Amino acid sequence: MSVLVTGATGFVGSAVARQLVSRGETVRVLVRAGGDRRNIADLPVEPVEGDLRDGESLARAVRGCRALYHVAADYRIWVPRPDEIYETNVEGTTRLLRAAAAEGVERIVYTSSVAVLGARPDGGPADEETPVRLTDMIGHYKRSKFLAEEAVHRLIREENLPAVIVNPSTPIGPRDIKPTPTGRLIVEAAMGRMPAFVDTGLNVVHVDDVAAGHLLAFDRGVVGDRYVLGGENLTLRDILGEIARLCGRRAPRVRLPHGLVLPIAYAAESVSRVTGREPFVTVDGLRMARKKMFFSSAKAEADFGYRARPAAVALADAVQWFREAGYLAKN
Fold first, then answer.
1. From residue 55, how far is each of 91, 146, 147, 295, 296 by CA, in Å?
2. Which residues pair with 196 in a beta bridge?
3. Burial level of 198, CB count in 10 A (0-12/13-18/19+)?
4. Is there a contact between 192 and 47 (Cβ–Cβ < 8 Å)?
5. Which domains does the chain have, with CATH numbers?
6. Is the pTM of this model over 0.85?
7. Distances in Å between the alpha carbon of 211 and those of 113, 180, 204?
8. Digit-coded pLDDT (tens) for 172-186
9. Separation between Cα atoms, residue 283 and residue 261, nearest integer Å
10. pLDDT digits (tens, 9 = 90+) for 41-62
11. 235 - beta bridge partners?
């Protein structure tokens, strides 16, 4: 029987699909008609056209599958039409998981995000149990993922859905073709276009380690539990400094107050409403950056042996891939 992976044409999903293929699974992938399939072009997978907004296509996709990795999500910090992100991340997730349950899928891994977790008042690493509410969520992406995870928990509790939840932190590495917001940051920094920084921090993890964590959660995770799949906690200054070192550039030394950047974010969003292009800096992104987004993967490490390589290795792999893929052609 097949294993269905959603989001396999994207960043994390393609890494999950690759590792499933490597261990001999028969992999089916949900793809949009006309979508970019470069990330799966070299993989022996079965593409099935469908969309999270189309229930009939989801029923076809899960037919005959014994397992599901639901990785797909609308990952945009800024959206011109917020209803789109809720339709995909909340309604689409509910629709897909109900279709999987109706088909009798034996095991599901749902990809959530550390974006839905709480923050510790002392700035220390948060984990799966850090208190959080919907009102703590900044922006439509975080709210949509929070509501989606709540929906998954409800299906587990009320309909016995056999699902394990994973919460990746900030994945980086190869095949970030879009690229993601973090990938864009790496590209801009590698091109020398980020001479300054704000005081924030991220938990950086190699995308292939996140993918390995998905498979471990499938094999050994507890149904109904959630697991942070993270790596190393670094300040933005340290991240930019390491990218500068990798590219032979001078590390940025100017720290900008959040209040100084906020008007720039508002202006960038105003331009984007006209052009339709996602702004590099957003109001919600800047508000999130007021707190260091540090996390602990101790539970996943203890429960099923999850491990992550050093952030410096992940950053080096990301820069190398962007360079070889032509994103840094003018560098």
1. 10, 22, 19, 35, 36
2. 254
3. middle
4. no
5. 2-174+204-233+294-310 (3.40.50.720)
6. yes
7. 13, 16, 14
8. 999 999 999 899 999
9. 9
10. 999 999 999 999 999 999 999 9
11. 201
